[in-house]
Amino acid sequence: MASFHLSNTSVQFGQFHALKSLHIDIQPAERLALIGTSGSGKTTLLKLLNAQITASQGEVQILGEKVDTLSPKRLRQLRSHIAFIPQHLGLISNLRVFQNIMLGRVGKRSTLGTLRDLAMPADEEMQKIFDILNSLGIAEKLYQRTSSLSGGQQQRVALARALYQNPEVLLADEPVSAVDPARARSMVQLLNKIASENKLTLIMSIHNIELAQEFFPRVIGLRGGEISYDGTNSQLDPAALERIYKLNTDELSQ
Amino acid sequence: MSQPPPHRYPKSLASVIGGKRVLMVLLVVVLFSCLYLAGIRVSSLKPSEYGLKLSYEFLVAAVQPALSYEAGPPSADAPPFLLKVLTALWLTFQYALCSMSVALVIGFIGGFFSSSSWWPENPNRPLKIALRGFFLISRFVVTLGRSVHELIWALLILTALGTTPLAGIIAISIPYGCTLAKIFSEMIDEQAGIARETLSSIGAKPMQNWLFGCLPLAFTDMLSYTLYRFECALRSSAILGFVGIPTIGYHIVQAFEDFHLLELWTYLYTLLAMIILSELWGKSIRARFNGQIAEKTNACKNPSLKQLKSQRPKSWWLRISGGIALATTIFAWLNIPAARYPLSWQRRLSNLESFFQQIVPYPVQKSGDWADAWPWAKNLLAESGTEAMLMTLYIATAAAIMAGVGAVLSMLWASARLNRMQSFETYTGNSRTELWRRRLTRTASHFVLLIARSSPEYILAFLLLQIFGPTAWPLILGLAIHNFGLMGRLYSELVDNHPAEASKQSLLAGGNRVQTYFGAILPQVFNRYLLYFFYRWETCVRDSTVLGMLGILSLGFLITDAKTRLFYDNLMFFVLLGALLVFIGDMLSYWIRAKLRQLDHS
């Protein structure tokens, strides 16, 4: 069973066609980079794969389930198996680091259960969180207020939250766009290592072509909401990159 | 040759109000128009001979506040004077604390129903209609509750239920609870976008989104606002003394009527001290929540979970403060003083029933036909209602403008960044005299602003009325002084937190403090100044509805007059007229502030 199956899928916002007739199959434990210019549809595609938005046309299957037939409850259950790291990380800055990570399981816990987790966390759950943070090199930040952490440390907290969720799929929307090249590289490397060790499906949108080619076996290039390239990283040649990135005059004036 | 593109005029508030200089001139014109229309002349702003004598004696008394009864104990069983002062102070504090605890409950419940961030993402039609219904009802109740001033609520409750110690608590709780509800709902809804994206993408229910996403993000702002409202509650509790509830305001009036000016100053000093201490306490709590005071971080290398747990950041100050606040609130509730003339509940219910019968317009009581209410209302409006309403508006507007202009100018001395030797991270010379001059100016300005905002406008107006006599000036000045202090604080935060680049450039180009303020800082923060100005103007309208209770023709005067004459239908009409005025003021200010925010973001 594929992790994701998109067949002739389009997404339209009013008159604007954000994604056009996509055909994509993504297998479990695949590691895939989404590349393309700003506005090419990368974030929209990730949101579609997270069922945050629905397709205007075509079929979308996530973890074997057709999205348009799901009840709200089933949809939430489905999302609880998919970790999503948004571009701005989406951390609750006032909460402590362990509380933010605890919220990774919010979709699998009742409201009262989550309240108890945040106020009086169980020892075994704290041990799990400590182990995750330890593997990411920031264990000592466990009880710190999240807003007091540096940008790089906050990225690791967002990753820890995703790992604590124990997901089948990890979606990341340009998580390294705002950091220096060395930190970006180490973060992408870490995400890939974690994904291969835990056999997670990893889909990441990224602007850095070098990192995409180096770490992701499969690359999808989007241009104007259409797939311009879908293949292995080794086949991503300058001609393919030019097709993805070459801007025409209209785009430049925007 | 190609034609140049046509010049497009911005369709914004800026195009209507013109440039900043035009607006400043406009505000001064509005100020003088208000004074002229209200029949207030600058020439009448001079104390009478009696007023001058009184002011002199009043100021002399300031340096020797009483520590014992000025004219000996009033009776053999009278408590020592300082004990009497402390009892009045505690009662003021007790009413404020009990009121705020009820207001917080109202604020949370009202805030929840007045916010839309807990709604499901795509509700079905019947659910959507039900949610919108709840939302609108909640907003309406919240708006009505806060449109009536706490002093008028106290008057209504005392009239409807008879003397009860709960009257003061209920009177403050209703408008404060509704204000908290409004502000809480806005603070929570502002966070809705981020929380929805974060938690709903991993399967959270809408309620979990609200509880774990929106609420924690809004928490610091909500706490900060609650602490500010507590300071306001202390002031409100003090002025409840003016309608007979024995808080410190009651003793201030008594001391003045007995001409015990030394005792009066003791009450004023203790009240100011309590308000200033509560502001400083609030400031220390806020600093710990918004990260101004950094938490202790763990210094060990490769710590174990056990080590981390035992060394996790703890703020003893927050814990002790929270514990004391909780214990004091419980103690305050358990020790509410009994009424001096207790009434049975049957009597209170019968009072209430009779009150509800009597607030129906008199012609309707007689005929039973509500059509008769219209000529009655028209008559009240024509007789004095319209004049009083306009007077209320003029007083509020004149006071707000005076306070605003004063606050804008005061920044030259009050801004911490502008009055340092290292101004805006720029070296401005080395002179010990200049260093001390700047330090002194800064501290003195902060002190003046602190005293101004800590002084309840009602008490200021009451004291000024004795000096200047029965004109509208004391009301305007009382309101202006208090708001000058508040605006000064808000403005200095703006000046000290705005991006430093332009100011730095001005100083580097050889500009002095005045040039830097007017040339570099003011243009950057002007829209935000206006935003706060209109927010305070809205509050001034609300406050000026009650200032008339001191005896100057405005809505408050008509309300007290109707109560004295037992015309409860007239009383209710003027209360509702006041609420309508506040509501219109609210809407106008809301509209202007929304436009200013747009300008600020554009």
Automatic annotation (TrEMBL), chain A:
<dbReference type="GO" id="GO:0005524">
    <property type="term" value="F:ATP binding"/>
</dbReference>
<dbReference type="InterPro" id="IPR003439">
    <property type="entry name" value="ABC_transporter-like_ATP-bd"/>
</dbReference>
<dbReference type="InterPro" id="IPR017871">
    <property type="entry name" value="ABC_transporter-like_CS"/>
</dbReference>
<feature type="domain" description="ABC transporter">
    <location>
        <begin position="4"/>
        <end position="249"/>
    </location>
</feature>
<dbReference type="InterPro" id="IPR003593">
    <property type="entry name" value="AAA+_ATPase"/>
</dbReference>
<dbReference type="InterPro" id="IPR050086">
    <property type="entry name" value="MetN_ABC_transporter-like"/>
</dbReference>
<keyword id="KW-1003">Cell membrane</keyword>
<keyword id="KW-0813">Transport</keyword>
<dbReference type="GO" id="GO:0016887">
    <property type="term" value="F:ATP hydrolysis activity"/>
</dbReference>
<keyword id="KW-0067">ATP-binding</keyword>
<keyword id="KW-1278">Translocase</keyword>
<protein>
    <submittedName>
        <fullName>ATP-binding cassette domain-containing protein</fullName>
    </submittedName>
</protein>
<keyword id="KW-0547">Nucleotide-binding</keyword>
<dbReference type="InterPro" id="IPR027417">
    <property type="entry name" value="P-loop_NTPase"/>
</dbReference>
<dbReference type="Pfam" id="PF00005">
    <property type="entry name" value="ABC_tran"/>
</dbReference>
<keyword id="KW-0472">Membrane</keyword>
TrEMBL record, chain B:
<keyword id="KW-0472">Membrane</keyword>
<feature type="transmembrane region" description="Helical">
    <location>
        <begin position="232"/>
        <end position="252"/>
    </location>
</feature>
<dbReference type="InterPro" id="IPR000515">
    <property type="entry name" value="MetI-like"/>
</dbReference>
<comment type="similarity">
    <text>Belongs to the binding-protein-dependent transport system permease family.</text>
</comment>
<keyword id="KW-0813">Transport</keyword>
<feature type="transmembrane region" description="Helical">
    <location>
        <begin position="21"/>
        <end position="40"/>
    </location>
</feature>
<feature type="transmembrane region" description="Helical">
    <location>
        <begin position="393"/>
        <end position="414"/>
    </location>
</feature>
<feature type="transmembrane region" description="Helical">
    <location>
        <begin position="151"/>
        <end position="178"/>
    </location>
</feature>
<keyword id="KW-0812">Transmembrane</keyword>
<protein>
    <submittedName>
        <fullName>ABC transporter permease subunit</fullName>
    </submittedName>
</protein>
<dbReference type="InterPro" id="IPR035906">
    <property type="entry name" value="MetI-like_sf"/>
</dbReference>
<dbReference type="Pfam" id="PF00528">
    <property type="entry name" value="BPD_transp_1"/>
</dbReference>
<feature type="transmembrane region" description="Helical">
    <location>
        <begin position="458"/>
        <end position="481"/>
    </location>
</feature>
<feature type="transmembrane region" description="Helical">
    <location>
        <begin position="316"/>
        <end position="336"/>
    </location>
</feature>
<feature type="transmembrane region" description="Helical">
    <location>
        <begin position="514"/>
        <end position="534"/>
    </location>
</feature>
<feature type="transmembrane region" description="Helical">
    <location>
        <begin position="264"/>
        <end position="282"/>
    </location>
</feature>
<feature type="transmembrane region" description="Helical">
    <location>
        <begin position="93"/>
        <end position="114"/>
    </location>
</feature>
<dbReference type="GO" id="GO:0055085">
    <property type="term" value="P:transmembrane transport"/>
</dbReference>
<feature type="domain" description="ABC transmembrane type-1">
    <location>
        <begin position="389"/>
        <end position="589"/>
    </location>
</feature>
<feature type="transmembrane region" description="Helical">
    <location>
        <begin position="541"/>
        <end position="559"/>
    </location>
</feature>
<dbReference type="GO" id="GO:0005886">
    <property type="term" value="C:plasma membrane"/>
</dbReference>
<feature type="transmembrane region" description="Helical">
    <location>
        <begin position="571"/>
        <end position="592"/>
    </location>
</feature>
